[in-house]
């Protein structure tokens, strides 16, 4: 090789190092600064549905290009209509029809994720009324049988936004009338986790799930006495999720772990319990996850959401209906609006900048540096040693980070593990490259 060729090759090598280095730094900066919300470009169904009392209309939340709003449609899937217009960086979700079927409630999530209740008394009107303020985060809601009161589970917003372990207040039960008078606090339990609220047909009891004794359990709360007790504990030993009572309270629909996939992921099925006997029947076998069961009022059917891509995000839901015996299942094929943005540069960047891309760029950058330092000074292992030092610094920082914030410590530890693995690959590459170069130069 002539001197001119050597200089030309070095220039190409330095140019490649500069290009890959720029791409790595740019990708690193983008991954740190980008919004990691998997739903920000998403178009698809939200995680809650509701059926009107006359069984003619279904309400649901729907993401269109990352914006979640409330829609209604016929139960045959036709005449889908958007009925709420969220403000910028606000999402509307968890719709629930009023008992008379003329209006509904939903929760609005602000940019900080704090959810508040809004009441729309007439579906033919755009007028809505906020029932709660941003001082509390609402988890779940339920109408009283006469539609005059909304019960809900909430916690102070400042505690909702704190990491686990730093919260000073837990979840409680509240009530508020639809006229907009100040809410009333019903409990003072500081519960770790409460959700899936419903009201008995006579309006005397509230039902909800809470995480107690290492499992999700169903509880009842008597509004007159203020007492809480486990409900159907002897029949729900394996955990209850998304419970829903039939209109006459003869049956309880709920989801529970049904199977485990080959990779260890829990698969959930829909179950129907006959409350007179306590016996449960499994209604679905989708090898996925199911959520939001809702009873029809005029026929023995249940609507639900099937999450086909469980546990990936964003969740991809399909509305299904199933008979009480599980033998008749059919989809509700909603005539949903399509995305208006066929090409989104941010969405493309989000897909391109991922852990695999970062790994390839890191190994390529330090691999090129290995070649450069071997040619320049025979210091073949210098880049790998530099990577090892960086790994050690991040590993040590994970302990300091854990003292400040547990999640930060875990994040730094995972990065350190990733760096150690990359470093091992770089040492192996340096060894093989040095051996190959020396062998090729032998006479």
TrEMBL record:
<keyword id="KW-0472">Membrane</keyword>
<feature type="transmembrane region" description="Helical">
    <location>
        <begin position="410"/>
        <end position="433"/>
    </location>
</feature>
<protein>
    <submittedName>
        <fullName>Uncharacterized protein</fullName>
    </submittedName>
</protein>
<dbReference type="InterPro" id="IPR011042">
    <property type="entry name" value="6-blade_b-propeller_TolB-like"/>
</dbReference>
<feature type="transmembrane region" description="Helical">
    <location>
        <begin position="386"/>
        <end position="404"/>
    </location>
</feature>
<comment type="similarity">
    <text>Belongs to the TolB family.</text>
</comment>
<feature type="transmembrane region" description="Helical">
    <location>
        <begin position="356"/>
        <end position="374"/>
    </location>
</feature>
<dbReference type="InterPro" id="IPR011659">
    <property type="entry name" value="WD40"/>
</dbReference>
<dbReference type="Pfam" id="PF07676">
    <property type="entry name" value="PD40"/>
</dbReference>
<keyword id="KW-1133">Transmembrane helix</keyword>
<keyword id="KW-0812">Transmembrane</keyword>
<feature type="transmembrane region" description="Helical">
    <location>
        <begin position="12"/>
        <end position="33"/>
    </location>
</feature>
């Amino acid at each position: 090789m002539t001197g001119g060729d050597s200089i030309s090759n070095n220039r190409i090598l330095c140019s490649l190092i500069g290009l890959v280095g720029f791409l790595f730094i740019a990708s690193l900066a983008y991954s740190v600064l980008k919004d990691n919300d998997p739903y920000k470009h998403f178009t698809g169904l939200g995680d809650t549905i509701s059926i009107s009392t006359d069984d003619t209309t279904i309400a649901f939340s729907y993401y269109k290009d990352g914006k979640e709003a409330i829609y209604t449609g016929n139960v045959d899937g036709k005449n889908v209509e958007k009925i709420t217009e969220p403000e910028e960086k606000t999402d509307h979700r968890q719709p629930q029809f009023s008992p008379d079927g003329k209006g509904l409630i939903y929760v609005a999530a602000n940019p900080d994720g704090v959810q508040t209740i809004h009441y729309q008394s007439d579906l033919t009107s755009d007028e809505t009324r906020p029932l709660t303020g941003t001082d509390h985060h609402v988890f779940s809601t339920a109408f009283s049988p006469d539609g005059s009161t909304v019960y809900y589970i909430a916690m102070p917003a400042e505690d909702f936004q704190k990491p686990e372990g730093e919260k000073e207040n837990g979840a409680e039960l509240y009530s508020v009338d639809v006229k907009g008078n100040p809410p009333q606090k019903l409990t003072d339990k500081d519960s770790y986790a409460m959700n899936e609220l419903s009201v008995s047909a006579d309006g005397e009891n509230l039902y909800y799930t809470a995480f107690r004794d290492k499992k999700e359990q169903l509880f009842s709360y008597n509004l007159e006495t203020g007492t809480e007790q486990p409900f159907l504990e002897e029949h729900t030993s394996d955990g209850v999720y998304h419970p829903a009572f039939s209109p006459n309270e003869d049956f309880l629909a709920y989801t529970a772990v049904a199977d485990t996939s080959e990779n260890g992921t829990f698969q959930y099925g829909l179950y129907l319990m006959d409350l007179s006997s306590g016996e449960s029947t499994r209604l679905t076998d989708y090898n996925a996850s199911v959520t939001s069961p809702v009873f029809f009022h005029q026929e023995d059917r249940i609507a639900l959401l099937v999450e086909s891509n469980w546990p990936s995000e964003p969740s991809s839901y399909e509305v299904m209906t199933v008979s009480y015996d599980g033998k008749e299942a059919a989809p509700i094929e909603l005539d949903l609006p399509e995305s208006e943005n066929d090409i989104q540069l941010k969405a493309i960047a989000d897909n391109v900048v991922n852990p695999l891309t970062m790994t390839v760029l890191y190994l390529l950058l330090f691999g090129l540096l290995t070649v450069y330092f071997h040619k320049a000074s025979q210091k073949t292992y210098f880049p790998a040693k530099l990577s090892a030092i960086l790994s050690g610094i991040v590993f040590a920082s994970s302990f300091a980070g854990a003292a400040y914030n547990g999640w930060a410590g875990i994040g730094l530890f995972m990065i350190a593990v990733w760096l150690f693995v990359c470093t091992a690959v770089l040492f192996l590459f340096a060894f093989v490259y040095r051996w190959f170069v020396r062998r090729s130069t032998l006479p």
